[in-house]
Amino acid sequence: MQIKLCGDAKINGYTVIFVYHENSISVTAIKNGLWHTVVDSAKLDELCDLVKQTRNQYTQNLSESFSSSDPSSCFTLREEGAVLNFVWSKEIKKGIKIIFGSFYLKPSYNPLESLSELTGLIANNLKESILCCSDFERENEKLKSLADVSVKKYEEVVSQIDDKEIILLSKFSAVLNEKKRKLESYKCPTYALSEDDKTPDKLSLQEDVDDLIPSKDRRKLKLVMGRRK
């Protein structure tokens, strides 16, 4: 039987332990003896209907009341003959309280056996929790390994893109140089231009070529052309 919630508190000199199983709540009080009760599924649904809450809301509020700084403000234990009346309530205004539940705990005539059952149940659920934690750790290791592989693949893709970009720029540079050579060969041969006359044309042609290249790629292109030289 799996434990979903549990808690304990010191109330009126008694150590009170509550355990919420899948379909029931057990309440145990320990002082100079042991008292115990089980709120079954039908009774639990009845209590939830009275306060207009779901099971999860009801049991979560019960757990929070047990773990509050002053549990005695939420719970009372009264001795009524051989039994204990355990009452869970909340004061909404001075003198006005909402009762969430009233449970009668009967004395256990074999407290050692009752404690052994409770301890065994908690121990088994603790083992299950430890196993779940181990499973989570293994899953986390797998996820970490997958993340490392993904980062490595991403870095490889980025590197390949950079290499391809350099190759494309190199080819583009070669095409532009070929176009420039053809343009120079189409010049009229009747003019014998001096080197000083040719320089402005070359500069102008180079400027035209530069205008064709996006500004962000000019630096890379110059580096590529420098390597080719």
Please explain how this structure is put together:
InterPro entries: DNA_repair_prot_XRCC4, XRCC4-like_C, XRCC4_N. One of its GO terms (cellular component) is DNA-dependent protein kinase-DNA ligase 4 complex. The protein has 229 residues and is an alpha+beta fold. The protein folds into 2 domains: 107 residues, Beta Complex (Dna Repair Protein Xrcc4, Chain: A, domain 1); 59 residues. Helices cover 56% and strands 24% of the residues. The protein is built from 5 helices and 7 strands. A hairpin with a 4-residue loop joins strand 2 and strand 3. Helix 3 packs across helix 5. The protein is elongated, with a radius of gyration of 41 Å.
Helix-strand blueprint:
Blueprint: E1 5-11, E2 14-20, E3 25-30, E4 34-39, H1 41-50, H2 55-66, E5 75-80, E6 83-93, E7 96-107, H3 111-185, H4 195-212, H5 215-228
Antiparallel strand pairs: 1-2, 2-3, 3-4, 4-7, 5-6, 6-7
**Beta-strand proportion:** 15-25%
For the termini, the CA-CA separation is 80 Å
According to CATH, the fold-level topology of the largest domain is Dna Repair Protein Xrcc4, Chain: A, domain 1
The largest sheet is: 7 strands, antiparallel
Query: Helix amount, in percent?
Result: 55-70%
Number of strands: 7
Task: Give the CATH architecture of the largest domain.
Answer: Beta Complex
List the uncertain runs. none
